[in-house]
Amino acid sequence: MISRDAAPMLDHYLALLTKWNVAINLVSPATLKEARHRHFLDSAQIYHLSAAEGRSWVDLGSGAGFPGLVLAILRKAEGASGAVTLIEADRRKAVFLTTVIRELSLDAQVIVDRIERAAPQQADRICARALAALPVLCGFMERHADPSAVALFPKGRNYRNEVEEARQNWDFSMKLHESVTDPEGVILEIQDLLRKS
C-alpha cells in the first residue's frame, strides 16, 4: 500500500515526529512505536480510496499531519498534481507541519486558523481523522468543499449513530469502506451534501 518511493519520505516524517513529539505531544507516545501501522497505513488507505483523483485536498484539523501529510507524500511519490491544504489552529503543530512540508518539498500548505473561520477552500476532496462527530464534519464540509466534492472520514464502531444523527439535518449519499487498520472501523465516503431546510 506504501510505495518504495514514498518509504524514505515517511521515514523522514517519522524521525521528525519522534523528535518533535517530546516537546509538543503531537501523538500519544505509546502510538509512536506503532506509527507505521497506526498512523501511516491508516492514512494511506484514504489515499488509495480517492486521493489520487482529487485535484485539491483539504485536511481538517490536521494535528500531527494525519492523514494530510501522508496524502501529500504519497501524491509526490506518484507524481500526482494538486496541492494538499492542512487546516490547523494550534500554532505549534502548524510549525511542525510546515517543517515537514519544507524538508520533504511537498506540494502542501498550512492554514493556521480554526476550521469554521478559515476562508472557504472549494476543495474537491475533504478528509478529517479523529476530529469530530459526523454532524459537525458535515458543517465543515459544507464550508470548505466544492459542491461536487467527496469527503473521506475514518470512523470507529459507533459510526451508525453518527450517521443517523447527521441525517437529521443533512442529506448526502454515502459509501462504506472497511478499514484495513481497525476491524470494527469504516471509512465513510460522503458526497452530494445538502443541508436540510
* Major beta sheet summary: 7 strands, mixed
Strand content is: 15-25%
Structural class computed from helices and strand pairing: alpha/beta
The rounded distance between the terminal residues' Cα atoms is 42 Å
The name of the CATH architecture is 3-Layer(aba) Sandwich
Helix content: 40-55%
Give the number of helices.
Answer: 7
Return residue spans where pLDDT drops below 50 for at least 5 consecutive residues: none
Strands of the largest sheet, in order across it?
3-2-1-4-5-7-6
Question: Count the strands?
Answer: 7
Task: Report Rg.
Answer: 16 Å
Secondary-structure element pattern, one letter each:
HHHEHEHEEHEHEE
The CATH superfamily name is: Vaccinia Virus protein VP39
Keywords: Cytoplasm, Methyltransferase, rRNA processing, S-adenosyl-L-methionine, Transferase
GO cellular component, one term: cytosol
InterPro entries: rRNA_ssu_MeTfrase_G, SAM-dependent_MTases_sf
Pfam families: GidB
Question: What does the secondary structure layout of this molecule look like, with pairings?
Answer:
Elements: H1 7-24, H2 29-32, H3 35-50, E1 57-60, H4 68-78, E2 84-87, H5 91-104, E3 108-111, E4 123-127, H6 134-144, E5 145-155, H7 159-166, E6 170-178, E7 186-195
Parallel strand pairs: 1-2, 1-4, 2-3, 4-5
Antiparallel strand pairs: 5-7, 6-7
Helix pairs in contact: 1-5, 3-4, 6-7
